[in-house]
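User: I'm writing a short methods note and want a consistent example. For Methyltransferase type 11, I'll paste the sequence; you return only the structure tokens, no commentary, since I'll be parsing the reply automatically.
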Amino acid sequence: MTPDPATEQTWTVYGQRQLDRGYSPPVPDRIDWGFWPGVGPGAEILGDIRGKRVLDVGCGPGHHAVHLARAHGALVDGVDLSPTQYRRAVNDHAGEPGVRFHCGDVAEHLRHARPYEAAYGLRTFGCVDPCHLLPALREGLVPGAPLVFSALHTDAEGRGPSDEVVPRRGVVRLRDEEPIPVWLWALSPQLWEALLADHGFTVESAQLLGAPDGDNLAVLQLVRARRRR
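Assistant:
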């Protein structure tokens, strides 16, 4: 997702722990952009992607890419920096029609790939330096292509977003495991909109996704933008 060695290490450790546990998430019936099933829109926010080349930014174990290929007829390239996350994806979904997986920095991948007709990231944009990713997406998407992503707004401790493009320390939690340190970009909606505008995108919608019962303080942003023509 980003070439930063610390971020690569975080998701390599995470992926290895999931491999050690033998955990493979099932291919979902719908796309959930937040942490809570049924909260917010599904894949329809991407628009009509049947037959279109779609980029999954930080695809992890690949189950969302497979859903979009099976249920929506998309041709999905999933890219993840972590070799253990990539291994999870190919272990479970190698040979899946309409899906390809790549291990490496997504910005570097975009420099050599044919431009995509849509791109998305499920909870991954908060783990990427936007100044590294957004210029690559501007060049790697065709004019008019949708870009949809969810990113952290408020963390589980109730810390809200920043008005500066700076990362902060967080943790990735797995049940019965030591937390894994991670750098996070939790940015305000206004800052995301300004950054996207600076890099050739127009924000079409933005909404906040929270726990339906209100017991979890975490909130995610869901942003739909479009590459300007």
